[in-house]
Amino acid sequence: MVITKESLSDIREEFEKAHKKIDEDSKNDPPTEPFRSHYDARDILQHVQRKLKDLLEVLDVGTDAALTVRCILANVLKDIGRIFIFTEELTNGELTLKEALELLQEDNEKSQAVNAYIEILNQLGILYCNWGNFEDSKRYLDQAKEAYEQGKFRQIEPLTITDLFGTKDEIEKGKGSELLEKNHTLTLYYLAQVYGYLEDLVKSAHYCHLTLKRQLDYEDYEHVDWALNAATLSQYYFPKNHLSQARHLLAAASYMLDRYEEKVIPMETNSSARAEKVETHRHRSADIARCWAKYGIHILTASKERLCRDDDDNERESKPQATDGLSPIRDIDRFIGLEGLSVYEDQITDEFCLTLEDAKLVMLNGLSWLNKAKEYYTKETEASQYAKIVQDIASLYKVLAFFDDNEDNQCKLYKRCIDQLEELDQILNATYYQIICKEIWYELGLTYSKILDVKLTKLETMGPDERPTPHALNKINKLCENSIGKFHKFLESYKVPLGTLEIPSGIDESELQPILFAYFHIGRLYYKVITPDKRLQLANVKNSFRYYHNFVKHCERFEAVAAHFKAEMGVCKEMNTLLPLKIKKLMNELNE
């Protein structure tokens, strides 16, 4: 027995009716019944399912007609499974998708079956990924990838569900191949996510990049989503010093957002929809500006770290070296078809900075991007994001100071860093923004201490006939006071009693390191206070000893953390020997 177009017309009509409910009617479902249209669609599809099973009963096994009906049935089951998943009936969704998969298992390489087969595997891959079963998710997605590759190798002409309902003469030429490519792009996209969860970041980045390229090649993308994905991928590359690749991705992201502003927004005739698109553009432009700024901050920070290492011929090269065991990317994997990316790329270097002039250019670009981001993320509307942007601005000033040999300029840059962070300390409620405030207090403590070091160095290099002015001495003491005060606020946020300095139990090991580092800094700061008053000297030395002593005690208690403090331990142990002698001497002088 053969099937005709007429014999499937009723089934096709019901199938299309079900999809109209999903695609259109569901938009108007009331909040009290959010799945109403999906439930209606499922009822229709289940009725279609029964009709198709009845039709299969009368068809000869092994015929093209039976294969066509079986493929239509698999598509119907796939859609029922997707509805189950959408309506949060996940186990039913899993069972239905597996039933659909079984129908196509033996014929998955045939033109009628391959698209549905890959779509079902993709759905199972997503389902298991959402369940946290990443190995099974990867297994299904690998099968989908293999099915695509086999189909391309065999040069089959894949069909769509619409083609299956019609006659051979009604097949829409190229539509099935277009769908196959789209399905494969989704497979690669999902594989990128799964490899990310499996912490295989190299493969995750590889599949992300493949997905972006395929979306461009087949013009199957939404401008804003594509731009965000490209910018997000850049955040994988630049920490590994693949700077050219990261910059290219960021340039492509900015390019795509500009095309959205020039081409997509003007085409929108509905005023409210247009306003929404304009707001989306503002929002995502701010996000991508922040990604550019992170790239600039990395260049400056990585350049500083390189220049701090032992100098040798290799280290003085400005070209970046990979830090992931791979070769540095020289010939980057460029996107074809995006004209004019050099305009975006030329804004900032893709090499490390060796001079102050190099660093200034990077810093100014970073500052420009962050100020742009602040136009969207304001302190009134997005306080936490605003705070992170200001912290990044502070980081730019602080790291630039490293490249400037002029001590006065260094202090000015550190002061700008402090001004940014002090503003945040004033406007943020420490109860609601405790994590950010902890970061701010710690960073302020360090930065006040940095200026102190510059001022002390100037004192130490004074000639034998020169004497520091009272203003200079007061400045040093004020810096000590400010730095100690911020470190104290940091310690108090962890409920560390400043009287005993006992660290409460339950603090995560990752947080112990900055706590102990604060002890070390406070011990040093108390010792740097300059005063002729011997009673104050005694109080300061006792405080210095107390913090140094507790630093050593807690390092011995937390051996894993102590491994990060080998140099500091040496200093503290030496001070723990010297300070009691100094305390005794001061006490004797006071008692004379």
Overview of this protein structure:
With 592 residues, the chain is an all-alpha fold. It has a domain at 225-376. 72% of the residues lie in helices and 0% in strands. The chain has 22 helices and no strands. It has helices at 5-23, 36-57, 64-86, 90-104, 114-130, 134-154, 161-165, 175-197, 201-217, 223-237, 243-264, 271-308, 341-345, 356-376, 383-403, 407-427, 434-460, 470-492, 509-528, 534-557, 559-562, 566-591. α11 packs antiparallel against α12, α12 runs parallel beside α15 and α18 runs antiparallel to α19 (509-528). The longest helix is centred in the middle third of the chain and has 38 residues, at 271-308. The protein is elongated, with a radius of gyration of 33 Å. Mean pLDDT is 92; it is low at 325-330.
Name some characteristics of this structure:
0% strand, 592 residues, single chain
Brief synopsis:
The chain has 592 residues and is mainly alpha-helical.
For the sheet with most strands, the description reads:
none
**Helix/strand order, N-terminal first:** HHHHHHHHHHHHHHHHHHHHHH
The geometry reads as elongated
Tell me the total number of β-strands. 0
Strand content: under 5%
- Could you say which structural class the secondary elements and strand pairing correspond to? mainly alpha
Q: Quote the distance from N terminus to C terminus.
A: 119 Å
The average pLDDT value, as a whole number, equals 92
> Ranges with pLDDT <50 over ≥5 residues?
325-330
Number of helices: 22
- Helix percent reads over 70%
Gyration radius, to the nearest Å?
Answer: 33 Å
